[in-house]
Protein backbone atom coordinates (compact mmCIF):
# COMPACT_ATOMS: atom_id res chain seq x y z
CA UNK A 1 0.00 0.00 0.00
CA UNK A 2 1.32 3.40 -1.00
CA UNK A 3 0.75 6.44 1.16
CA UNK A 4 -0.79 9.53 -0.39
CA UNK A 5 1.69 12.34 0.23
CA UNK A 6 0.77 16.02 0.54
CA UNK A 7 2.75 19.21 0.80
CA UNK A 8 1.38 22.53 2.05
CA UNK A 9 2.72 25.91 0.94
CA UNK A 10 1.41 29.03 2.64
CA UNK A 11 2.21 32.32 0.99
CA UNK A 12 2.26 35.68 2.75
CA UNK A 13 4.82 38.01 4.30
CA UNK A 14 2.71 38.36 7.45
CA UNK A 15 3.32 34.70 8.34
CA UNK A 16 7.03 34.68 7.51
CA UNK A 17 7.76 37.77 9.60
CA UNK A 18 5.88 36.13 12.48
CA UNK A 19 3.10 38.71 12.57
CA UNK A 20 0.40 36.13 11.89
CA UNK A 21 0.40 32.64 13.38
CA UNK A 22 0.00 30.09 10.60
CA UNK A 23 -3.34 28.57 11.59
CA UNK A 24 -4.11 27.96 7.91
CA UNK A 25 -1.26 25.48 7.71
CA UNK A 26 -2.53 23.61 10.77
CA UNK A 27 -6.08 23.49 9.49
CA UNK A 28 -5.08 22.17 6.07
CA UNK A 29 -2.64 19.68 7.62
CA UNK A 30 -5.18 18.30 10.05
CA UNK A 31 -7.91 18.07 7.42
CA UNK A 32 -5.64 16.24 4.98
CA UNK A 33 -4.37 13.95 7.74
CA UNK A 34 -7.93 13.14 8.75
CA UNK A 35 -8.73 11.86 5.25
CA UNK A 36 -5.60 9.71 5.14
CA UNK A 37 -2.89 11.89 3.61
CA UNK A 38 0.61 11.98 4.98
CA UNK A 39 1.62 15.63 5.08
CA UNK A 40 5.39 15.65 4.61
CA UNK A 41 6.23 19.36 4.67
CA UNK A 42 4.64 22.69 5.43
CA UNK A 43 6.45 25.65 3.91
CA UNK A 44 5.73 29.31 4.54
CA UNK A 45 7.18 31.88 2.15
CA UNK A 46 6.87 35.56 1.28
CA UNK A 47 4.74 37.21 -1.40
CA UNK A 48 7.76 37.17 -3.67
CA UNK A 49 7.49 35.83 -7.21
CA UNK A 50 10.96 34.27 -7.26
CA UNK A 51 10.42 32.61 -3.86
CA UNK A 52 7.04 31.23 -4.94
CA UNK A 53 8.41 29.89 -8.23
CA UNK A 54 11.40 28.25 -6.56
CA UNK A 55 9.23 26.71 -3.84
CA UNK A 56 6.76 25.27 -6.35
CA UNK A 57 9.61 23.77 -8.39
CA UNK A 58 11.23 22.33 -5.22
CA UNK A 59 7.90 20.89 -4.14
CA UNK A 60 7.22 19.25 -7.51
CA UNK A 61 10.67 17.61 -7.30
CA UNK A 62 9.54 15.88 -4.10
CA UNK A 63 6.77 14.33 -6.21
CA UNK A 64 3.89 14.39 -3.72
CA UNK A 65 0.35 13.41 -4.76
CA UNK A 66 -1.16 16.73 -3.70
CA UNK A 67 0.16 20.27 -3.22
CA UNK A 68 -2.11 22.72 -1.40
CA UNK A 69 -1.24 26.40 -1.30
CA UNK A 70 -2.93 29.18 0.64
CA UNK A 71 -2.70 32.92 0.17
CA UNK A 72 -2.12 35.30 -2.71
CA UNK A 73 -5.32 34.85 -4.74
CA UNK A 74 -6.84 38.24 -3.96
CA UNK A 75 -7.16 41.49 -5.89
CA UNK A 76 -4.10 43.31 -4.51
CA UNK A 77 -0.74 43.90 -6.16
CA UNK A 78 1.03 41.53 -3.76
CA UNK A 79 -1.30 38.59 -4.52
CA UNK A 80 1.08 36.77 -6.83
CA UNK A 81 0.41 33.07 -6.33
CA UNK A 82 -1.27 32.21 -9.64
CA UNK A 83 0.99 34.42 -11.74
CA UNK A 84 4.06 32.88 -10.10
CA UNK A 85 2.80 29.31 -10.51
CA UNK A 86 1.76 29.99 -14.11
CA UNK A 87 5.26 31.30 -14.86
CA UNK A 88 7.08 28.59 -12.90
CA UNK A 89 5.31 25.80 -14.80
CA UNK A 90 5.21 27.56 -18.18
CA UNK A 91 1.43 27.42 -18.12
CA UNK A 92 0.97 31.18 -18.23
CA UNK A 93 -2.26 32.80 -17.09
CA UNK A 94 -5.46 33.16 -19.06
CA UNK A 95 -8.88 34.46 -18.24
CA UNK A 96 -11.17 31.63 -17.12
CA UNK A 97 -14.80 32.24 -18.07
CA UNK A 98 -16.21 30.12 -15.24
CA UNK A 99 -14.13 31.99 -12.67
CA UNK A 100 -15.03 35.33 -14.24
CA UNK A 101 -18.75 34.48 -14.06
CA UNK A 102 -18.39 33.56 -10.35
CA UNK A 103 -16.67 36.85 -9.56
CA UNK A 104 -18.95 38.98 -11.73
CA UNK A 105 -22.06 37.54 -10.11
CA UNK A 106 -20.84 38.33 -6.59
CA UNK A 107 -19.98 41.95 -7.35
CA UNK A 108 -23.03 42.60 -9.50
CA UNK A 109 -25.31 41.42 -6.69
CA UNK A 110 -23.90 44.35 -4.71
CA UNK A 111 -24.19 46.69 -7.70
CA UNK A 112 -20.40 46.89 -8.05
CA UNK A 113 -18.67 46.93 -11.44
CA UNK A 114 -15.82 44.67 -12.58
CA UNK A 115 -12.61 46.66 -12.20
CA UNK A 116 -9.15 45.58 -13.35
CA UNK A 117 -8.28 44.45 -9.79
CA UNK A 118 -11.46 42.39 -9.50
CA UNK A 119 -11.03 40.79 -12.93
CA UNK A 120 -7.47 39.80 -11.90
CA UNK A 121 -8.96 37.02 -9.75
CA UNK A 122 -10.31 35.28 -12.88
CA UNK A 123 -6.88 34.78 -14.48
CA UNK A 124 -5.92 31.15 -13.85
CA UNK A 125 -3.04 29.00 -15.08
CA UNK A 126 -3.84 27.38 -18.44
CA UNK A 127 -5.95 24.25 -17.94
CA UNK A 128 -6.96 25.10 -14.37
CA UNK A 129 -10.49 25.03 -12.95
CA UNK A 130 -12.02 27.35 -10.37
CA UNK A 131 -13.18 25.91 -7.03
CA UNK A 132 -16.23 27.52 -5.43
CA UNK A 133 -15.60 30.01 -2.61
CA UNK A 134 -18.85 30.54 -0.69
CA UNK A 135 -17.21 32.83 1.87
CA UNK A 136 -15.50 35.37 -0.35
CA UNK A 137 -14.77 36.48 -3.88
CA UNK A 138 -11.56 34.86 -5.17
CA UNK A 139 -12.28 31.30 -6.31
CA UNK A 140 -9.91 28.49 -5.36
CA UNK A 141 -7.95 26.99 -8.24
CA UNK A 142 -7.18 23.36 -9.07
CA UNK A 143 -5.12 21.77 -11.83
CA UNK A 144 -2.85 18.83 -12.47
CA UNK A 145 0.81 19.00 -13.37
CA UNK A 146 3.00 15.93 -13.95
CA UNK A 147 0.46 13.78 -12.13
CA UNK A 148 0.45 16.05 -9.07
CA UNK A 149 -2.89 17.58 -8.14
CA UNK A 150 -2.73 21.22 -7.07
CA UNK A 151 -5.19 23.18 -4.98
CA UNK A 152 -4.69 26.91 -4.45
CA UNK A 153 -6.86 28.40 -1.69
CA UNK A 154 -7.28 32.01 -0.57
CA UNK A 155 -5.44 33.17 2.57
CA UNK A 156 -8.46 34.37 4.58
CA UNK A 157 -9.09 31.41 6.92
CA UNK A 158 -12.86 31.02 6.46
CA UNK A 159 -12.43 31.27 2.67
CA UNK A 160 -9.55 28.76 2.71
CA UNK A 161 -11.65 26.33 4.79
CA UNK A 162 -14.64 26.66 2.49
CA UNK A 163 -12.60 26.20 -0.69
CA UNK A 164 -10.79 23.21 0.85
CA UNK A 165 -14.09 21.50 1.72
CA UNK A 166 -15.52 22.20 -1.76
CA UNK A 167 -12.35 20.78 -3.28
CA UNK A 168 -12.44 17.60 -1.18
CA UNK A 169 -16.11 17.12 -2.02
CA UNK A 170 -15.91 17.73 -5.76
CA UNK A 171 -12.40 17.82 -7.20
CA UNK A 172 -10.07 15.61 -5.15
CA UNK A 173 -8.78 12.80 -7.34
CA UNK A 174 -6.26 11.19 -4.99
CA UNK A 175 -8.35 9.26 -2.52
CA UNK A 176 -5.98 7.85 0.10
CA UNK A 177 -6.85 4.25 0.81
CA UNK A 178 -6.03 4.46 4.52
CA UNK A 179 -7.86 5.40 7.69
CA UNK A 180 -6.17 7.57 10.30
CA UNK A 181 -6.99 7.08 13.97
CA UNK A 182 -5.58 8.50 17.21
CA UNK A 183 -6.18 8.47 20.95
CA UNK A 184 -4.44 10.35 23.73
CA UNK A 185 -4.23 10.42 27.53
CA UNK A 186 -2.46 12.39 30.23
CA UNK A 187 -0.13 11.26 33.00
CA UNK A 188 1.19 13.37 35.85
CA UNK A 189 4.35 12.93 37.88
CA UNK A 190 6.47 11.18 35.25
CA UNK A 191 9.12 13.12 33.28
CA UNK A 192 9.66 12.71 29.54
CA UNK A 193 13.17 11.30 30.00
CA UNK A 194 11.89 8.66 32.43
CA UNK A 195 9.17 7.53 30.06
CA UNK A 196 11.41 7.55 26.97
CA UNK A 197 12.56 3.93 27.26
CA UNK A 198 9.01 2.65 27.85
CA UNK A 199 7.76 4.44 24.74
CA UNK A 200 10.74 3.26 22.69
CA UNK A 201 9.89 -0.33 23.58
CA UNK A 202 6.19 -0.02 22.75
CA UNK A 203 6.90 1.69 19.41
CA UNK A 204 9.13 -1.22 18.43
CA UNK A 205 6.29 -3.61 19.14
CA UNK A 206 3.38 -1.69 17.58
CA UNK A 207 4.95 0.43 14.81
CA UNK A 208 2.54 3.24 15.67
CA UNK A 209 3.22 6.93 16.20
CA UNK A 210 3.56 7.32 19.97
CA UNK A 211 4.54 10.77 21.14
CA UNK A 212 4.86 12.34 24.58
CA UNK A 213 3.93 16.03 24.61
CA UNK A 214 5.34 17.78 27.71
CA UNK A 215 2.68 19.96 29.33
CA UNK A 216 4.44 20.63 32.64
CA UNK A 217 8.10 21.03 33.57
CA UNK A 218 10.33 17.97 33.38
CA UNK A 219 11.68 18.37 36.94
CA UNK A 220 9.18 20.59 38.75
CA UNK A 221 5.71 19.28 37.93
CA UNK A 222 6.00 16.77 35.11
CA UNK A 223 2.86 16.24 33.06
CA UNK A 224 2.74 14.48 29.72
CA UNK A 225 0.11 14.05 27.09
CA UNK A 226 0.64 10.76 25.32
CA UNK A 227 -0.63 10.54 21.76
CA UNK A 228 -0.99 7.22 19.92
CA UNK A 229 -1.85 7.41 16.24
CA UNK A 230 -1.68 5.45 13.03
CA UNK A 231 -3.20 4.76 9.63
CA UNK A 232 -4.34 1.56 7.97
CA UNK A 233 -6.41 0.46 4.99
CA UNK A 234 -8.77 -1.13 7.53
CA UNK A 235 -10.57 1.13 9.97
CA UNK A 236 -11.24 -1.70 12.42
CA UNK A 237 -7.64 -2.78 12.33
CA UNK A 238 -6.19 0.63 13.14
CA UNK A 239 -8.74 1.35 15.89
CA UNK A 240 -8.00 -2.02 17.50
CA UNK A 241 -4.26 -1.54 17.21
CA UNK A 242 -4.28 1.94 18.76
CA UNK A 243 -6.54 0.74 21.60
CA UNK A 244 -4.33 -2.30 22.32
CA UNK A 245 -1.21 -0.16 22.29
CA UNK A 246 -2.82 2.36 24.64
CA UNK A 247 -3.89 -0.36 27.07
CA UNK A 248 -0.44 -1.92 27.17
CA UNK A 249 1.26 1.43 27.57
CA UNK A 250 -1.06 2.47 30.40
CA UNK A 251 -0.38 -0.82 32.18
CA UNK A 252 3.38 -0.45 31.80
CA UNK A 253 3.28 3.11 33.16
CA UNK A 254 1.21 2.03 36.17
CA UNK A 255 3.53 -0.90 36.83
CA UNK A 256 6.75 1.10 36.53
CA UNK A 257 5.78 4.48 38.04
CA UNK A 258 2.61 3.74 40.02
CA UNK A 259 0.78 6.44 38.06
CA UNK A 260 -2.66 6.03 36.49
CA UNK A 261 -3.49 7.84 33.28
CA UNK A 262 -6.20 10.53 33.27
CA UNK B 1 23.73 47.03 2.00
CA UNK B 2 23.16 43.30 2.15
CA UNK B 3 20.20 41.85 4.05
CA UNK B 4 20.85 39.18 6.64
CA UNK B 5 18.74 36.20 5.58
CA UNK B 6 17.35 33.59 7.96
CA UNK B 7 15.54 30.29 7.50
CA UNK B 8 13.50 28.54 10.17
CA UNK B 9 13.01 24.78 10.31
CA UNK B 10 10.62 23.34 12.87
CA UNK B 11 10.75 19.62 13.44
CA UNK B 12 7.92 17.54 14.88
CA UNK B 13 5.14 15.31 13.58
CA UNK B 14 2.60 17.09 15.78
CA UNK B 15 2.98 20.29 13.75
CA UNK B 16 2.96 18.63 10.33
CA UNK B 17 -0.22 16.65 11.02
CA UNK B 18 -1.83 19.89 12.20
CA UNK B 19 -2.25 18.79 15.79
CA UNK B 20 -0.15 21.64 17.16
CA UNK B 21 -0.24 25.18 15.80
CA UNK B 22 3.29 26.28 14.97
CA UNK B 23 3.66 29.16 17.42
CA UNK B 24 7.38 28.42 17.68
CA UNK B 25 7.86 29.38 14.05
CA UNK B 26 6.00 32.67 14.57
CA UNK B 27 7.97 33.52 17.69
CA UNK B 28 11.34 32.84 16.07
CA UNK B 29 10.30 34.67 12.90
CA UNK B 30 9.14 37.76 14.73
CA UNK B 31 12.18 37.87 17.01
CA UNK B 32 14.57 37.55 14.07
CA UNK B 33 12.62 40.14 12.07
CA UNK B 34 12.74 42.54 15.02
CA UNK B 35 16.54 42.47 15.07
CA UNK B 36 16.77 43.07 11.33
CA UNK B 37 16.80 39.63 9.70
CA UNK B 38 14.78 38.87 6.62
CA UNK B 39 13.16 35.48 7.24
CA UNK B 40 12.79 33.91 3.79
CA UNK B 41 11.24 30.55 4.58
CA UNK B 42 9.68 28.65 7.44
CA UNK B 43 9.61 24.89 6.96
CA UNK B 44 7.86 22.35 9.15
CA UNK B 45 8.81 18.68 8.79
CA UNK B 46 8.34 15.36 10.55
CA UNK B 47 10.62 13.64 13.06
CA UNK B 48 12.07 11.63 10.20
CA UNK B 49 15.80 11.38 9.73
CA UNK B 50 15.69 11.42 5.91
CA UNK B 51 13.32 14.41 5.88
CA UNK B 52 15.51 16.33 8.33
CA UNK B 53 18.69 15.59 6.38
CA UNK B 54 17.13 16.59 3.04
CA UNK B 55 15.68 19.78 4.51
CA UNK B 56 18.99 20.83 6.04
CA UNK B 57 20.78 20.21 2.73
CA UNK B 58 18.08 22.15 0.81
CA UNK B 59 18.32 25.00 3.28
CA UNK B 60 22.12 25.21 3.06
CA UNK B 61 21.82 25.43 -0.75
CA UNK B 62 19.75 28.61 -0.29
CA UNK B 63 22.81 30.04 1.48
CA UNK B 64 21.13 32.05 4.24
CA UNK B 65 23.18 33.70 7.01
CA UNK B 66 21.34 31.91 9.80
CA UNK B 67 19.35 28.69 10.11
CA UNK B 68 17.30 28.22 13.26
CA UNK B 69 15.69 24.86 14.02
CA UNK B 70 13.29 23.97 16.79
CA UNK B 71 12.32 20.57 18.13
CA UNK B 72 13.94 17.18 18.44
CA UNK B 73 16.62 17.86 21.07
CA UNK B 74 15.03 15.91 23.90
CA UNK B 75 15.68 12.51 25.45
CA UNK B 76 13.13 10.48 23.48
CA UNK B 77 13.71 8.09 20.59
CA UNK B 78 12.00 10.42 18.11
CA UNK B 79 14.23 13.40 18.97
CA UNK B 80 16.49 13.08 15.95
CA UNK B 81 17.51 16.61 15.05
CA UNK B 82 21.17 16.56 16.06
CA UNK B 83 21.82 13.04 14.85
CA UNK B 84 20.23 13.89 11.48
CA UNK B 85 22.14 17.16 11.12
CA UNK B 86 25.38 15.48 12.19
CA UNK B 87 24.87 12.82 9.53
CA UNK B 88 23.68 15.23 6.81
CA UNK B 89 26.78 17.42 7.18
CA UNK B 90 29.24 14.58 7.87
CA UNK B 91 30.03 16.07 11.24
CA UNK B 92 28.90 13.06 13.20
CA UNK B 93 27.96 13.35 16.87
CA UNK B 94 30.31 13.40 19.83
CA UNK B 95 29.80 13.88 23.52
CA UNK B 96 30.27 17.53 24.46
CA UNK B 97 31.68 17.93 27.97
CA UNK B 98 30.19 21.39 28.51
CA UNK B 99 26.73 20.13 27.51
CA UNK B 100 27.17 17.04 29.66
CA UNK B 101 28.08 19.16 32.69
CA UNK B 102 24.97 21.35 32.14
CA UNK B 103 22.70 18.29 31.99
CA UNK B 104 24.38 16.43 34.86
CA UNK B 105 24.07 19.44 37.15
CA UNK B 106 20.34 19.79 36.53
CA UNK B 107 19.55 16.15 37.21
CA UNK B 108 21.93 15.80 40.16
CA UNK B 109 20.27 18.77 41.89
CA UNK B 110 17.13 16.64 41.91
CA UNK B 111 19.06 13.55 43.00
CA UNK B 112 18.52 11.86 39.64
CA UNK B 113 21.21 9.81 37.91
CA UNK B 114 22.45 10.19 34.34
CA UNK B 115 20.72 7.53 32.25
CA UNK B 116 21.41 6.72 28.61
CA UNK B 117 18.41 8.82 27.51
CA UNK B 118 19.55 11.81 29.55
CA UNK B 119 23.14 11.59 28.35
CA UNK B 120 21.82 11.54 24.76
CA UNK B 121 21.18 15.28 25.05
CA UNK B 122 24.94 15.93 25.42
CA UNK B 123 25.84 14.45 22.02
CA UNK B 124 26.37 17.40 19.65
CA UNK B 125 27.65 17.64 16.09
CA UNK B 126 31.47 17.88 15.99
CA UNK B 127 32.58 21.48 16.62
CA UNK B 128 29.23 22.61 18.06
CA UNK B 129 28.72 24.51 21.31
CA UNK B 130 25.85 24.20 23.77
CA UNK B 131 23.59 27.20 24.39
CA UNK B 132 22.19 27.62 27.91
CA UNK B 133 18.62 26.49 28.50
CA UNK B 134 17.36 28.01 31.76
CA UNK B 135 13.87 26.57 31.34
CA UNK B 136 14.61 22.90 30.73
CA UNK B 137 17.27 20.27 30.37
CA UNK B 138 18.33 19.92 26.72
CA UNK B 139 20.79 22.70 25.85
CA UNK B 140 20.48 24.58 22.57
CA UNK B 141 23.19 23.92 20.03
CA UNK B 142 25.10 26.33 17.80
CA UNK B 143 27.74 25.77 15.13
CA UNK B 144 28.92 27.14 11.81
CA UNK B 145 28.90 25.32 8.50
CA UNK B 146 30.05 26.85 5.20
CA UNK B 147 29.72 30.32 6.70
CA UNK B 148 26.12 29.68 7.80
CA UNK B 149 25.43 30.00 11.52
CA UNK B 150 23.12 27.33 12.95
CA UNK B 151 21.03 27.45 16.10
CA UNK B 152 19.10 24.38 17.23
CA UNK B 153 16.53 25.06 19.92
CA UNK B 154 14.29 22.66 21.86
CA UNK B 155 10.64 22.34 20.83
CA UNK B 156 9.00 23.26 24.15
CA UNK B 157 8.08 26.93 23.59
CA UNK B 158 9.45 28.43 26.82
CA UNK B 159 12.70 26.50 26.37
CA UNK B 160 12.96 27.55 22.73
CA UNK B 161 12.40 31.20 23.70
CA UNK B 162 14.99 31.06 26.45
CA UNK B 163 17.60 29.40 24.27
CA UNK B 164 16.91 31.87 21.44
CA UNK B 165 17.43 34.85 23.77
CA UNK B 166 20.63 33.34 25.21
CA UNK B 167 21.86 32.74 21.67
CA UNK B 168 21.12 36.30 20.52
CA UNK B 169 22.82 37.70 23.62
CA UNK B 170 25.95 35.55 23.55
CA UNK B 171 26.49 33.61 20.32
CA UNK B 172 24.93 35.47 17.38
CA UNK B 173 27.67 36.45 14.93
CA UNK B 174 25.58 37.87 12.07
CA UNK B 175 24.47 41.25 13.31
CA UNK B 176 22.11 42.67 10.70
CA UNK B 177 22.94 46.32 10.05
CA UNK B 178 19.33 47.38 9.58
CA UNK B 179 16.50 48.55 11.78
CA UNK B 180 12.98 47.23 11.27
CA UNK B 181 10.00 49.45 11.98
CA UNK B 182 6.26 49.11 11.45
CA UNK B 183 2.98 50.87 12.17
CA UNK B 184 -0.58 49.82 11.49
CA UNK B 185 -4.09 51.26 11.51
CA UNK B 186 -7.64 50.09 10.84
CA UNK B 187 -10.24 51.34 8.38
CA UNK B 188 -13.87 50.29 8.20
CA UNK B 189 -16.23 50.37 5.24
CA UNK B 190 -13.66 49.98 2.46
CA UNK B 191 -13.11 46.62 0.74
CA UNK B 192 -9.70 45.22 -0.09
CA UNK B 193 -10.34 45.31 -3.83
CA UNK B 194 -11.32 49.00 -3.65
CA UNK B 195 -8.18 49.93 -1.75
CA UNK B 196 -5.86 47.83 -3.92
CA UNK B 197 -5.07 50.58 -6.47
CA UNK B 198 -4.41 53.17 -3.72
CA UNK B 199 -1.95 50.82 -2.00
CA UNK B 200 -0.29 49.91 -5.30
CA UNK B 201 0.36 53.59 -5.96
CA UNK B 202 1.78 54.29 -2.51
CA UNK B 203 4.04 51.22 -2.61
CA UNK B 204 5.52 52.46 -5.88
CA UNK B 205 6.36 55.78 -4.25
CA UNK B 206 7.68 54.55 -0.89
CA UNK B 207 9.09 51.08 -1.57
CA UNK B 208 7.81 49.94 1.82
CA UNK B 209 5.87 46.83 2.76
CA UNK B 210 2.24 47.95 2.77
CA UNK B 211 -0.28 45.21 3.37
CA UNK B 212 -4.02 45.18 3.87
CA UNK B 213 -5.17 42.44 6.25
CA UNK B 214 -8.92 41.75 5.86
CA UNK B 215 -10.64 41.56 9.24
CA UNK B 216 -14.24 41.75 8.06
CA UNK B 217 -16.00 40.46 4.94
CA UNK B 218 -15.20 42.15 1.63
CA UNK B 219 -18.85 42.79 0.73
CA UNK B 220 -20.76 42.58 4.02
CA UNK B 221 -18.84 44.58 6.61
CA UNK B 222 -15.41 45.42 5.17
CA UNK B 223 -12.71 46.15 7.73
CA UNK B 224 -9.02 46.28 6.94
CA UNK B 225 -5.92 46.50 9.04
CA UNK B 226 -3.24 48.32 7.11
CA UNK B 227 0.34 47.49 8.01
CA UNK B 228 3.27 49.63 6.88
CA UNK B 229 6.73 48.27 7.56
CA UNK B 230 10.32 48.54 6.46
CA UNK B 231 13.97 48.25 7.38
CA UNK B 232 16.88 50.64 7.00
CA UNK B 233 20.41 51.06 8.30
CA UNK B 234 19.19 54.30 9.91
CA UNK B 235 16.55 54.05 12.61
CA UNK B 236 15.47 57.69 12.16
CA UNK B 237 15.17 57.26 8.41
CA UNK B 238 12.91 54.21 8.55
CA UNK B 239 10.69 55.67 11.31
CA UNK B 240 10.28 58.90 9.32
CA UNK B 241 9.58 57.03 6.09
CA UNK B 242 6.92 54.76 7.63
CA UNK B 243 5.25 57.74 9.33
CA UNK B 244 5.21 59.80 6.10
CA UNK B 245 3.82 56.87 4.15
CA UNK B 246 1.11 56.29 6.76
CA UNK B 247 0.12 59.99 6.73
CA UNK B 248 -0.14 60.11 2.94
CA UNK B 249 -2.08 56.84 2.80
CA UNK B 250 -4.53 57.98 5.48
CA UNK B 251 -5.10 61.24 3.60
CA UNK B 252 -5.68 59.43 0.31
CA UNK B 253 -8.18 57.05 1.94
CA UNK B 254 -10.06 59.93 3.51
CA UNK B 255 -10.10 61.84 0.24
CA UNK B 256 -11.23 58.88 -1.89
CA UNK B 257 -13.62 57.02 0.46
CA UNK B 258 -14.49 59.59 3.14
CA UNK B 259 -13.29 57.15 5.82
CA UNK B 260 -10.99 58.07 8.70
CA UNK B 261 -8.55 55.52 10.04
CA UNK B 262 -8.97 54.22 13.60
TrEMBL record, chains A, B:
Residues of the MoaB/Mog domain: 7-175
InterPro entries: CinA, MoaB/Mog-like_dom_sf, MoaB/Mog_dom
Protein name as catalogued: Nicotinamide mononucleotide deamidase-related protein
Taxonomic path: Archaea, Thermoproteota, Thermoprotei, Sulfolobales, Sulfolobaceae
Matching Gene3D superfamilies: MoaB/Mog-like domain
PANTHER family: NICOTINAMIDE-NUCLEOTIDE AMIDOHYDROLASE PNCC, NMN AMIDOHYDROLASE-LIKE PROTEIN YFAY
UniProt-listed Pfam families: MoCF_biosynth
